[in-house]
Write a structure and sequence with these properties.
alpha/beta, Rossmann fold, three-stranded parallel β-sheet
Length: about 110
């Protein structure tokens, strides 16, 4: 989930080339709707999003009983946000920019 279309498109291409099945969302609300019909093995959430950010999505997922591994991404993550993410159950945190290989490796590790 990322609000930047170019980032979403890049991630989609990169992960598809790695033989991973991918769905993209531009908002937290869109992701929550998607989860009503799809059961992903892993989520990649951007911390800073308009409306509902990645941390709020993570808290809602936790409240709904989801146990999906979550990779939190951000170009600007302070210590308080990092702590909140870990307390909410984030599996990994990646700082933008990150390499495609690192993201693919992280996802494969979490879904293995």
């Amino acid at each position: 989930m990322d609000d930047d279309a170019a980032v979403r498109d890049s991630l989609l291409i990169m992960l598809t080339l790695a033989d991973l099945s991918v769905e993209t969302c531009q908002s937290g609300a869109e992701l929550l709707l998607l989860l009503e019909t799809h059961k992903p093995d892993c989520l990649v959430l951007d911390v800073h999003m308009p409306g509902m950010g990645g941390l709020e999505v993570l808290e809602r997922l936790k409240a709904l009983g989801y146990t999906i591994p979550v990779i939190m991404i951000s170009g600007n993550m302070d210590d308080a946000t990092r702590t909140s993410a870990h307390q909410a159950g984030v599996s990994r945190i990646l700082k933008k920019p990150f390499s495609g290989a690192i993201l693919v490796e992280t996802i494969q590790e979490l879904i293995a």
